[in-house]
Model the fold of this input.
Amino acid sequence: MQFAERIKRLGTETAFDVLAKVNELRAQGKDIISFSIGEPDFNTPENIKKACKDALDRNETHYKPANGILELREVIAQKSFELRGVKVDPSEVVVTPGAKPILFHTLHALVNEGDEVIYVNPGFPIYESVINFLNAKPIPLPLVEEKEFSCDIDTLKSLITPKTKLLIINSPHNPTGGTLSRSDLEAIAELAIKHNFYVMSDEVYHRFSFEGKFESISSIPGMKERTIVVDGCSKTYAMTGWRIGWGIMPAELAKVVTRMIINSDSCTAAFTQYAAIEALKGDQTESYKMAEEFKARRDLIVSLLNDIKGVRCLKAKGAFYVFPNVTEACRNLGFKDSRELQDYLLYEAGVAVLARTCFGSKNVGEKDEYIRLSYATSREQIIEGLKRMKRAIEKK
Ligand code: PLP
Done:
């Protein structure tokens, strides 16, 4: 087949490759403990499932407005105000099948070929993939352990040029669990306003902010009009397979993104949207319980990782990931990089983790090695998995 040129520039999520290997090994009867998957291990709360079943029984099975039903957009606007403290009009909300389409469509709507887009690295691999797909210039913003994987403002300043069109931030952050403080966000906002670029703020992990209150850049004066907030039900309500997310953005942009949806999806499934209304408006106990459990698991996994010779792990502040430094472990085992450690742990210890490079290429001058562990798995699995890792890493 003769594919279009642009397809060569489309990346992927290599995490799915590891998932495929895990499934293959399990199919062969191997006992694998997986820390690779980026989704809650909890089930969707019953009240949300019931709202979906009720919607089906009411025959809510037809097309809906491309930007989402008004009732859902009103609830999103209200809940966003309560969370972020910024007034939102339903015309500034666009509902999509998951948060991912917001990344895809808004970048398409805003970024021209040759524009520069700054994005956090390590980071969610789809950012870099879509920037490349658009033939724009990806400019990685290094997040470093010394800064607890927040943002170094001087580094950011040095990357801004007249061609900078947009900056992508993500707090709490996948894969490091780092967060951006109010003062980080204020400094970023000052630069965005001064240099006139947009900010895409990926806030899908906002409920899992373990140290202090969640902060959104959209709440800083002058930012609402240049921010695209990315959010959804996947992580907050354990609804990854439902495919429901949304973006909050200037109404003018919302109209263009809606046109993108008319061309691609028509709309998000009707009954899923009714489930999302219940998710947002209904009882939040289950979601907060899940957040509490993640926090306890974070404490457990961080202490077990720090007990392994050659491994050093910061206490992640949010999301459900930790990003330990494994430089010394790699050296002790004679491995070139964390990719070799990833394979060793999978095939020798039956533990699946993701190498740093699943989250973008290394930054210039980056010497240390890291892996990501998702602790969206039971405490028993965490204890057993870390026991296996310790045995395998300390073997030599
Ligand atoms: N943004 C980040 C940082 C993520 O980690 C993910 C999922 O892993 C998404 C967006 C996509 O979420 P959704 O399932 O709502 O498309």
Remarks:
- The longest strand covers residues 164-170.
- The chain is about 40% helix and 15% strand.
- The chain has two domains: 5-43+286-394, 61-281.
